Amino acid sequence: MTAVRLMASKSVAEVSRELNVSCTTLYKWERLLKEEGTEGLSNKKKMQSDQEISRLNKLVQEYKLIVAEKDLQVKILKELLKKSPSLKKIE
């Protein structure tokens, strides 16, 4: 919030150099403050986002395991079909 206050009295470039932050970041902070107030500048959203990404990554890993198991089952069944002459007649 200090950065946004500084932007009221100095140029974005000056504040950027002073705080060692990119101009893009300063504009983003300014926009978040206008749209969401101080809540928009908190790390709470990022933490929630990181937790959601972590949860989804775990879910993806679970689905990959399920798909791998099903793929293995299909391969085994195909091999069994090749080796069993009685099952070939059913086809």
Ordered list of secondary-structure elements with their pairings:
Blueprint: H1 2-9, H2 12-19, H3 23-36, H4 44-83, H5 85-90
How would you summarize what this structure contains?
The chain contains 5 helices and no strands.
Folded structure, characterized:
- The protein is mainly alpha-helical and 91 residues long.
- It has two domains: 40 residues, no CATH class; 46 residues.
- It is built from five helices and no strands.
- The chain is rod-shaped, with a radius of gyration of 28 Å.
- It starts with a helix and ends with a helix.
- The model has no long low-confidence stretch (mean pLDDT 82).
Structural class estimated from helices and strands? mainly alpha
Strand content: under 5%
- Listing every helix as H and every strand as E from the N terminus to the C terminus, the arrangement reads HHHHH
Q: Which residue ranges are poorly predicted, with pLDDT under 50 across at least 5 consecutive positions?
A: none
Looking at the structure, what is the overall shape? rod-shaped
The average pLDDT value, as a whole number, equals 82
Biggest beta sheet attributes: none
Task: Estimate nothing, just give the exact number of structural domains.
Answer: 2
Radius of gyration: 28 Å
Q: Tell how many strands the DSSP assignment holds.
A: 0
Distance between the termini: 72 Å
Please report the number of helical segments: 5
Helix content: over 70%
Annotation keywords:
mainly alpha, 5 helices, 2 domains, 91 residues
